[in-house]
Specification:
alpha/beta, 5-stranded mixed sheet, 43% helix
């Protein structure tokens, strides 16, 4: 689920999502949402399709509507995976995200280099190096899902 007007270009995410779906034998559909009023219809459609789940893509629109999104996922009993830990903290099932706190010192070093005369275009792009997996076990239980022990052991945080 994404908002085409506010999301990070899907070309960055979709190839890996499609490859994972293909490898797993899962059908994948992109679901654009243009307005807050359309969110519920996405969950209603997912709920009608037994065995479906949802990946909530990195998107300011989704972030601004995270409470509604997680509440609808629970109401319609749709397992969903999110791009920020805050979704799991408000009831989302699973979040896998880069650690923003880890990135801030990198940003400070870039600002320092720019203030000392470096041209921003000459600085290398730095990707995140630390990612957190957060699993909300309360939500898993409410959805009737058993989270495998191995996955729980890999998690950086379990919400019980």
């Amino acid at each position: 689920m994404f908002n085409p007007t506010t999301s990070v270009p899907l070309k960055f995410y979709m190839p890996s999502v499609q490859a994972a779906a293909s490898t797993s034998g899962v059908e994948m559909n992109a679901t654009p949402v243009h307005a807050k009023e359309e969110i519920e219809s996405v969950f209603a459609a997912q709920a009608r399709d037994q065995g479906s789940s949802l990946i909530v893509m990195p998107d300011p629109f989704n972030g601004a509507n995270r409470e509604q999104i997680t509440l609808l996922a629970a109401r319609y009993r749709v397992p969903a995976m999110y791009y920020r830990r805050e979704f799991a903290e408000v009831g989302g099932l699973i979040a896998y995200a880069n650690d923003f706190a880890e990135q801030f010192p990198q940003a400070a070093a870039y600002v320092d280099r720019i203030l000392k005369g470096a041209k921003p275009a000459d600085l290398p792009v730095q990707a995140p190096t630390k990612f957190d997996l957060v699993i909300n076990l309360k939500t898993a239980k409410a959805l009737g899902l058993d989270v495998p022990l191995g996955m729980q052991q890999r998690a950086d945080e379990l919400i019980e």
